[in-house]
Design goal:
It is a single chain. By secondary structure, the chain is mostly helical. The chain is built from 7 helices and no strands. The longest helix has 26 residues, at 110-135.
């Protein structure tokens, strides 16, 4: 089976709404994590780029689901509106994560589910590490970033 055929097969296992949720969640994590500091205290560009790099790293993961999600993200046309990925803040993101967990429990192989949830968490962690380093070089995570990652992990059923 070609890589493209595998991606189509995986996407076919989900409704359009579910697939939009799974493909939009990493980007939403980047947006919220990049502004999680108090009042968005740091420039989000470096943090956002770190998040994009973490998303791109999913292309080589040993999970068909993650590779299909990344391929779908990259296949979107520039300027095409993303449905279901509105500008909501942390509360909306955490609710979306909990919904994604329920979708994955129903539809995904347990290994793919775990890998996807850990990958989304790693996207957030990469953004937060970069953002914290901009505020306080060589320091641990900023408290706001640590709280965000704790809440994200809980919503993704990783804690």
């Amino acid at each position: 089976m070609s890589e493209r055929s595998a991606q189509v097969t995986i996407a076919a296992g989900y409704s359009a709404t579910e697939w939009e949720l799974l493909t939009g969640l990493p980007g939403r994590v980047i947006v919220v994590a990049a502004r999680s500091g108090p009042g968005g205290a740091y420039p989000p560009v470096a943090a956002g780029l770190a998040g994009l790099d973490a998303v791109a790293a999913g292309r080589v993961f040993d999970s068909d689901l993650i590779r299909a999600v990344v391929a779908a993200i990259y296949a979107r046309h520039d300027g095409a509106p993303e449905t279901g990925a509105g500008p909501g803040g942390g509360v909306d993101l955490l609710a979306a994560c909990r919904t994604a967990v329920r979708v994955l429990q129903r539809r995904a192989d347990p290994a793919d589910s775990a890998a996807y949830r850990q990958w989304v968490q790693s996207v957030g962690a990469r953004v937060c590490r970069t953002a914290s380093a901009v505020v306080v070089p060589d320091a641990a995570l900023a408290p706001a970033d640590r709280r965000f990652l704790d809440r994200l992990g809980g919503a993704l059923a990783l804690r």
